[in-house]
Automatic annotation (TrEMBL):
This is Cardiolipin synthase A. NCBIfam families: bac_cardiolipin (TIGR04265). It holds the Pfam family PLDc_2. InterPro entries: Cardiolipin_synthase (IPR022924), CL_synthase_A (IPR030840), CLS_N (IPR027379), PLD-like_dom (IPR025202), PLipase_D/transphosphatidylase (IPR001736). It comes from Ferrimonas gelatinilytica.
Amino acid sequence: MDKVYQLMGWLSVGAYWLLVAAVSLRVVLKRRTVGVSAAWLMVIYILPLFGVGLYLLIGERNIGRARQRRSAEMADAYRQWFGQLEQSLHHHQHHLGRHAHPLHHLCFQQMGIPATLGNNPTLMQDPKTIFESLLRDIEGARHTIQMEFYIWHPGGHADEVAQALIDAAQRGVEVKLLLDAAGSRDFFKSHWPRQLKEAGVALIAALEVSPLRMFLRRMDLRQHRKIIVLDHEIAYSGSMNLVDPRFFKQKAGVGQWVDVMVRLTGPAVTALAAIHAWDWELEGGERALPELPSGETAPDPSHISDALQVIPSGPTQPERVIQKVLLLGIYHARRQITLCSPYFVPSEHLLEALITAAESGIRVELIVPDKNDSMMVDWASRSYFTELLRAGVKIYRFQGGLLHTKAVLIDDDHCLIGSVNLDMRSLHLNDEITLALDDPTFCAELQTLMGHYKGDSYALDLTIWRQRSLRKKLTEQFFYLFAPLL
């Protein structure tokens, strides 16, 4: 009997070794960055069985076979639609500037999405002003309202929006509301879903979390976009979730969330409507592509040379597209780069690009919150500060709340603004939306806002930063090891 037990023991060890070897080989063959592969191998070897199970659950961008099949079936129709959009705007393409021209070609080649000109964007930074503007636009909607958010948290102005949607649906407006199931779980537990549906609002919970599906698709992939489109004439996008900061995460100890939204009119509105239509069809199976822009939505003559590129990213879009967009902007910079992000855990390529820019004489500034609601991300973020400061990057830590704005300003004529954090999750995993604008007037407003952020911040000094305690340094390095997985 002892020999049987001994044989079973050796067979168990052999089976485990084969399992670890097979998963390790799969990690290597995926050809990701060295840091990501090394982090996963470390988890697999340091945490027996648990590490292997964790990789099988969240190690790859597995969106599920049904979702993958539906996405493939949808792709041709949407690429054709965007191709028709490009043709309708083709006579304006010669106006594209030094940033917009390569960006247009990159996005059109990767996803078929063209740059649009003649839009009229407005930067909005005060929550009260944003909600007041949104409520007016909802009250004025005549035909359709499309909304998509990661978080809808009940309370305050968010409840006013819910009631406005109910009123719109009852007067005959078609309302489609898509919310991430995990991010908006408090909303789905409230009375609002029932009231909205009873009023005729179409409501979908995206990427539902269920233990029964954990081995069918990756459960931590999230729908992180923020999109509002009204009558295909007005759109909003940016960093703000559908939350009133006065009522959201008040016990987190980080202060009120600080966000921006962009309200815009013009041809880019139709592109945002198409992105919402993609997500709606992917989740609910119903196709509702918007009509292409007509003469009634002709480009604003005062902005005919200002390009706006709508950039969706995520598991159903080409891999690393948003990282390519970021790198393209950084390497085109001539004088200054200012980055603002609540969560800063850069990829190897992004980190190297920022260091190279700073060392080549470009002023590189990074604005991050002093207090963060994610302990792991906060410590991992700090692990990059010494290297960045040594290269000449100016780091500002914002003290006016949780700075949730996600924006990149290149020189004074190009910017990226949207839902993308500068971390691995946003760059590679979540469904995100970014607006790239070549608009000097808009960029000047964003630069002024960045100046206000810096005014509410303190700048890190390399000499003082190096004097932090050994405990903090070790904690930073511990979380740095897991940075590629955050």
